[in-house]
Amino acid sequence: MTLTAATLIETAQSTRQAAQTLASWPGEARNQALVTVAEALKDSAAEILAANQADCRQAEATGLATALLARLKLDASKLEAAIAGVLSVAELPDPLGRLHINRELDAGLILKRVTCPLGVLGVIFEARPDAVMQISALGIKSGNGVILKGGQEAIHSCRAIVHAIHQGLEAAGLPPETIALLTNREETLALLELDRLVDLIIPRGSNSFVRFVQDNTRIPVLGHAEGICHLYVDQAADLAQAVAIAVDAKTEYPAACNAIETLLVHQAIAAQFLPLVAAAMPQVELRGDAQTRQILSITAACEADWATEYSDLILAIRVVDSIEAAISHINAYGSGHTEAIVTSNSQTAATFLAEVDAAGVFHNCSTRFADGFRYGFGAEVGISTQKMPPRGPVGLEGLVTYKYQLTGQGQIVADYSGTNAKPFTHKNL
Amino acid sequence: MTLTAATLIETAQSTRQAAQTLASWPGEARNQALVTVAEALKDSAAEILAANQADCRQAEATGLATALLARLKLDASKLEAAIAGVLSVAELPDPLGRLHINRELDAGLILKRVTCPLGVLGVIFEARPDAVMQISALGIKSGNGVILKGGQEAIHSCRAIVHAIHQGLEAAGLPPETIALLTNREETLALLELDRLVDLIIPRGSNSFVRFVQDNTRIPVLGHAEGICHLYVDQAADLAQAVAIAVDAKTEYPAACNAIETLLVHQAIAAQFLPLVAAAMPQVELRGDAQTRQILSITAACEADWATEYSDLILAIRVVDSIEAAISHINAYGSGHTEAIVTSNSQTAATFLAEVDAAGVFHNCSTRFADGFRYGFGAEVGISTQKMPPRGPVGLEGLVTYKYQLTGQGQIVADYSGTNAKPFTHKNL
Fold it and tell me: Are A248 and B412 in contact (CB < 8 Å)?
């Protein structure tokens, strides 16, 4: 074992132990801790902003990409918003101690299924120092310890923020080890190997980064590598509505994972619709299949286009001859994120919502609504494109699990087995 | 790609497509299919029993282990019970189409979260041909296709059963490809690689087999490799009750995953309790730590004993000086399956239930109650010791996922962003 791995195991054990204290606190006390953390962050604003300026200067000097630099930069208003975010997490309903099942198995033998924390979250992110505040707040709220690993480019900012968070935790009477910060590059891989000490990995960064994390750990990963979303415009669509939705879904924020990459158009309305949509998004590079190119003079889309997340002002277009063809294209090339149909035919819409295999299936609205805040979850931990729950935008629900508590008065299974077996009552309370 | 892999991909694609038909059927029609499958099994009873006799003869000739032979053997009454099991699955509540969330995001923009099938289940099992009937029934009920891979020793039985199931599916108007049977040994590994076509793997067999499956696939695995369960007898325990629970949890069915492997005893009552428990289970080999051996003259337990699932009439015993020591032993050596405490002190019990990290935490009752049927789930798909849900005994709930359906009237995100952003109503309906 390397020195890094050994030190990391100690850190993770401390965080795990601290999290057990946190988990035993009632919801009100965890909310109060969020208040003291927010106050400590406010009190340390000057230090945090100065640390961030140091990071930004260094990033500029080393020529960090503009997009990353924008995410790295923390000014007074961005910091204020992040601190307000910490306080708003305190306002959310408590995700712990929720009773899913409360059932009498027999007289005096009571089964409860209650939500409880996962334990320790491992969060690996690039650039964005505000993520430290957000994820720490969600961890405290949900009774989980958090091990954070930020990018080297944000190291001073992260240290200053975590220092303030530790002061806030101590003011609340919580061990500072609840939130740990890793600052050493080798620690990322070592963290991914701690499947006995870390319960969930949340990677925040590029698609390739998320895929790397997924491929290098046995720990469950919350997130998604790709967002290849489609809009299918049916023959029975209101074309003006379809144009507005296509423009919103492609151009409102093209780098978002819920933006569309491919537009599927029913052949019956293609000749009428395609010129309208092309005119409505002149800034977008369109790539089409053969049928599309008989209507629009644009570049040809090749096989790779159907499987690409452009994250940019590029849109692939394909003409299909039926709803079935649209569904089978989507189920073949989609990433299971969010898929939408525009149609006035409710039967066609029902088929689409039932048969498309994705976390989000939308009818007559933009794919861009796929988001935890827009869904009303209050906080978003990530968006999962996996088949098993939690799926789609995940709020605090994704940071908790449950356990079965069975309380008896000395009951043994032998009495409920064999020829004179006592029956179970299985009565929900 | 090998020929096996290529053929398997075709099989899996057919099953996936057949499952989509099944998934679109209402609950009543799926139940009716269970009835026709049960009838077809009944009609084929003679063929199935003859096929099983051929398997058993061959297994005896090749010297199959007695335990496996017992699981392989299917007589008329076992077959009848399995067919009754298929019909009882029809009686369970429909796991599909359940509404978790029904929320207005804004006027005319309605979000629903509804349960839907996973898609295709891959089930790999040893010996037991009755598993084919049970898991096929659960697949039909939950709208999932099933790819079955049984052991070579049960090949004739499995073929005869699946042949009958196909007849039952056809009588119901369903494609027979809904349930596929693999009969070729190389197909197991190839199946584990189909993460684009198979959504969940359910392994049924020995611990080492389950661990092999977990280590060789990216597909989620439902099941558990180990069941290392503990019983902690507190200083405030009713000793007669503790003896009865210990005997039940160890001896009622020692090969069960919810049987205990280690008994933890508070030192304050050890001298009084240990002789009672030893006298109550004379057939059990006891192994103790140093303190236990000052009271009982038994073999010494070594470090490996704390981490071993005996699945046999052997019990490790350790004396601890506090509830904290008991919890920390359990959290270090337990497999997260089921852990129990015997105590009359409700405060101590509450600490145990809160701080022990396991799918099941029990107070004053036997660990052997950890079971889907005893919990009242009607059917048990498996028991999961993973931290993320589904955790513990899993019923039909574990064979479904959910999707978010958003239905609008042309809404776009641009109207809900920026300075004049429309607010969301987030009103639960």
Answer: yes
Say whether residue B53 is in contact with chain A using an 8 A CB cutoff.
Answer: no
| Chain B contact set for A223 (CB, 8 A) | none
Taking the Cβ of residue A281 and every Cβ of chain B, the question of whether any pair is shorter than 8 Å is answered with no
For tokens 């695995």, the residue is B221
Give the pLDDT confidence of B197-242 residue by residue, as tens digits. Answer: 999 999 988 888 888 898 888 899 998 878 899 999 999 999 999 9
Looking at chain B, the whole-number percentage of residues with pLDDT higher than 70 is: 99
Three-state DSSP at A248 gives: helix
Give CA–CA dist A394/A317, Å, rounded.
30
Q: Which CATH number fits domain B229-369: 3.40.309.10, 2.170.120.12, 3.40.50.170, 2.20.70.100?
A: 3.40.309.10
Structure tokens at A389: 């729950």
CATH class label, A3-215: alpha beta
Q: Please calculate the CA angle A239-A244-A246 and round it to the nearest 5 degrees.
A: 90
Fold of A229-374: Aldehyde Dehydrogenase; Chain A, domain 2 (3.40.309)
A376 vs B105, B365, B387: nearest CB: B105
What b-and-e string marks burial along A101-130, b requiring 16 or more CB atoms within 10 Å of the CB? Answer: bebbbbeebbbbbbbbbbbbbbbbbbbbbb
User: ipTM for the complex?
Assistant: 0.92
B positions 322-351 inside 8 Å of A (CB): 349
Q: What are phi and psi of B259, to 5 degrees?
A: -80, 155
- Domains of chain A, by residue range, sit at 3-215, 229-374
B106 in contact with A, Cβ within 8 Å: no
Q: Which residues of A touch B23 (CB under 8 A)?
A: 354
* Burial class of residue A21 (count of CB atoms within 10 Å of its CB; 0-12, 13-18, 19+): middle
pLDDT band at B289 (very low <50, low <70, confident <90, very high): very high
Whether residue A197 is predicted with pLDDT greater than 80 in this model: the reply is yes
CATH 3.40.605.10 fits B3-94+120-215, yes or no: yes
Integer Cα distance of A129 and A90 in angstroms: 20
| Distance, CA of B158 to CA of B48 (rounded, Å) | 8
